[in-house]
C-alpha cells in the first residue's frame, strides 16, 4: 500500500554552498512543488545579498551608498536592520563592514573595475550603515564596504522555511552549508562537526522548531574544498584566532548564523547576547576545554 | 547563567565517525520532469566530442574538458523544443557529484539540481569519514546503525566545482547545441 505521505530531499548549489531542503508529510508532488518554491526563495536572497554578483543589493550599496541613499529590497533592509541591532548590542563586534579585510586576505574578490580599493585610514568606529525610511540605506563613511556573508545564509534558511510553511508542508528542514533549521512535530537529528577534526562529529542533537549554525575558523587545516569561514575581528581588523569554532542554537537561523560569529570573536563574554536572543551555544577554543552555555547544558541533559 | 565545561561523550564521537558513502536525491527521470513540467518527452541527444568541440568548450569556459562526451536530452512539448537537459559530474577532493542543468532553448540556465553524490576514488580513502561533513550517509547502507546522520551543522564543501561545471556546460551549449 502506498504511504499516506511521502518524504523528499533535494539539493542545489546556492549561496556559495550546497543548500539542501527536505520536506515530508504531504503527497510527493506537493512536496516537490513546495521545495522548488523554497529554492526560489533562497535564490532570491542569493541574488540580493551576494558580494560577487554585480547587480545584487550588496554590490549596489558598495558602489553607491557612500555618496547617496540607495533603495534596497525589504529583505536586504531587514538583514541590515538586524545587523545594525547586533552591531549596537555587541559594541561594534558584529560588523558587516569588514569586506575590505576579506578582500585583502583574498577571501572576497576585488571590485569589478579591477582597481585597487582606496587606501584608507581605519574607519571611524561608528555604525557603518544608516537605515533611512522607505528601505533606503546610506553608508556613514566612504571607506565602508559591506559583506553579508556572516548573516545572509541564515536569513535565507529562515525565508525558505517560511516558504515551505506557506505551501502547507507539515515537516521540513533546510540546510545551507551547515546552517540548519527545522520545523514540524517531529524532532530531527542534527550532528555538529568538530571544528578541530573536520572528519569527526562532536555531538548529535535532536532539534524541533529551531535553528542551529556552526562557524569554524579556517586559518589552519583548510583544504581547497572547505568553505573558507574567516571571521574578522573589527577591533584588530585581523582574523580572529583564539576560538576555533562555535555552534549556536536559536529560534531563528539568521540569529544562530550571526551569533556564531560573535561567539568566535567574544568567547564567553558573548553570553549576555546569547541570552538576549534566547540562544544557547557550544564554544570550542583552539586549545583546552570546550564550554556550553548553561541553557545548552540544560537542554542536553534529557538527551544524555 | 554562564558557561559550563563540556566534554564530548566519546561513545557518540565514535559511533558517528562512520562515513557517508553516497546519497541519491533524484533520478535523471525525476529531475527531467521537475525541470520541464510541460515537456511530453525527452529525446536523447548525447554529444560525442570532436577535438574541435573540446577546443571550443575549453576556450569558451576556461575549464578543462575531461569527458569524451556529454549526456544531453532535448525536452519537447509535443514537437516544440522547450529546452535542454544536461547531466554532468564534477569531482571534488572527496566526492563525485552528479548534477543536472536545465537550459531553455536560448541557452539560459534554469535550475541546477544535484542528483547524487558519492565517494570519489583515487587516493582519498583514508579520508573517508571526511564525507560525513557534507550531507549525510546513505540510506542504502544496511550496516549503518544510525539512519539519520544527514543533517550536519558546520563547514561544508564548496560548491565551486559545480559552478565551474555549469560554466563548461554553457560553453558546450554554444559549441555543440545551438
Q: Could you explain the architecture of this structure?
A:
The complex is a heterodimer of chains A (304) and B (178). With 304 residues, chain A is of the alpha+beta class. Among the domains of chain A are: 83 residues; 117 residues, Roll (T-fold). Chain A is built from eight helices and 15 strands. In chain A, the strands form four sheets. In chain A, strands 1-2-6-7-10-13-14-15 form an eight-stranded antiparallel beta sheet. In chain A, strands 3-5-4 form a three-stranded antiparallel beta sheet, covered by helices on one side. In chain A, a hairpin with a 2-residue loop joins strand 1 and strand 2. About 7% of the residues of chain A have low confidence. With 178 residues, chain B is α+β, with helices and mostly antiparallel strands. Chain B has one domain. Helices cover 24% and strands 31% of the residues of chain B. Chain B is built from four helices and nine strands; from the N terminus they run βαβαββαβββββα. In chain B, a hairpin with a 3-residue loop joins strand 6 and strand 7. In chain B, helix 3 packs across helix 4. The radius of gyration of chain B is 20 Å and the shape is globular. About 21% of the residues of chain B have low confidence.
Amino acid at each position: 500500500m502506498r504511504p499516506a505521505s511521502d518524504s523528499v530531499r533535494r539539493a542545489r548549489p546556492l549561496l556559495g554552498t550546497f543548500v539542501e531542503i527536505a520536506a515530508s508529510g504531504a503527497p510527493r508532488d506537493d512536496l516537490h512543488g513546495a521545495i522548488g518554491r523554497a529554492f526560489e526563495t533562497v535564490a532570491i536572497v542569493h541574488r540580493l545579498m551576494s558580494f560577487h554578483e554585480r547587480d545584487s543589493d550588496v554590490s549596489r550599496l558598495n558602489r553607491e551608498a557612500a555618496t547617496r541613499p540607495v533603495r534596497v529590497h525589504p529583505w536586504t533592509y531587514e538583514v541590515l536592520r538586524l545587523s545594525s541591532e547586533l552591531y549596537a548590542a555587541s559594541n561594534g563586534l558584529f560588523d558587516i563592514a569588514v569586506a575590505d579585510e576579506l578582500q585583502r586576505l583574498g577571501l572576497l574578490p576585488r571590485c569589478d573595475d579591477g582597481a585597487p580599493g582606496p587606501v584608507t585610514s581605519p574607519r571611524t568606529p561608528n555604525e557603518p550603515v544608516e537605515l533611512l525610511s522607505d528601505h533606503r540605506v546610506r553608508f556613514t563613511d566612504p571607506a565602508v564596504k559591506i559583506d553579508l556573508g556572516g548573516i545572509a545564509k541564515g536569513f535565507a534558511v529562515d525565508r525558505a522555511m517560511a516558504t515551505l510553511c506557506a505551501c502547507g508542508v507539515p515537516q521540513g528542514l533546510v540546510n545551507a552549508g551547515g546552517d540548519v533549521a527545522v520545523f514540524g512535530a517531529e524532532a530531527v537529528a542534527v550532528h555538529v562537526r568538530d571544528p578541530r577534526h573536520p572528519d569527526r562529529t562532536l555531538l548529535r542533537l535532536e532539534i524541533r522548531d529551531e535553528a542551529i549554525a556552526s562557524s569554524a575558523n579556517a586559518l589552519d587545516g583548510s583544504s581547497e574544498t572547505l568553505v573558507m569561514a574567516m571571521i574578522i575581528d573589527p577591533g584588530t581588523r585581523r582574523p580572529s584566532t583564539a576560538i576555533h569554532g562555535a555552534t549556536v542554537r536559536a529560534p531563528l537561523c539568521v540569529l544562530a548564523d550571526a551569533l556564531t560569529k560573535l561567539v568566535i570573536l567574544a568567547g564567553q563574554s558573548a553570553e549576555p547576547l546569547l541570552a538576549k536572543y534566547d540562544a544557547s551555544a557550544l564554544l570550542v577554543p583552539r586549545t583546552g576545554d570546550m564550554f556550553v552555555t548553561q541553557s545548552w547544558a540544560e537542554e542536553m541533559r534529557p538527551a544524555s | 547563567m554562564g558557561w559550563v565545561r563540556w566534554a564530548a561523550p566519546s561513545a557518540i564521537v565514535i559511533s558517528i565517525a562512520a562515513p557517508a558513502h553516497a546519497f541519491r536525491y533524484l533520478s535523471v527521470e525525476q529531475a527531467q520532469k521537475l525541470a520541464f513540467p510541460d515537456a511530453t518527452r525527452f529525446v536523447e541527444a548525447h554529444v560525442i566530442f570532436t577535438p574541435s568541440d573540446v577546443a571550443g568548450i575549453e576556450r569558451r569556459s576556461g575549464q578543462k574538458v575531461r569527458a569524451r562526451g556529454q549526456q544531453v536530452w532535448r525536452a519537447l512539448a509535443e514537437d516544440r523544443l522547450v529546452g535542454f537537459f544536461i547531466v554532468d559530474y564534477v569531482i571534488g577532493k572527496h566526492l563525485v557529484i552528479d548534477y543536472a542543468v536545465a537550459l531553455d532553448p536560448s541557452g539560459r540556465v534554469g535550475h541546477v539540481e544535484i542528483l547524487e553524490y558519492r565517494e570519489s576514488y583515487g587516493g582519498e580513502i583514508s579520508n573517508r569519514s571526511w564525507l560525513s561533513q557534507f550531507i549525510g550517509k546513505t540510506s542504502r547502507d544496511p550496516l549503518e546503525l544510525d539512519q539519520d546522520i544527514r543533517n550536519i551543522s558546520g563547514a561544508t564543501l564548496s560548491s565551486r566545482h559545480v559552478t565551474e561545471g555549469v560554466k563548461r556546460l554553457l560553453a558546450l551549449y554554444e559549441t555543440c547545441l545551438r
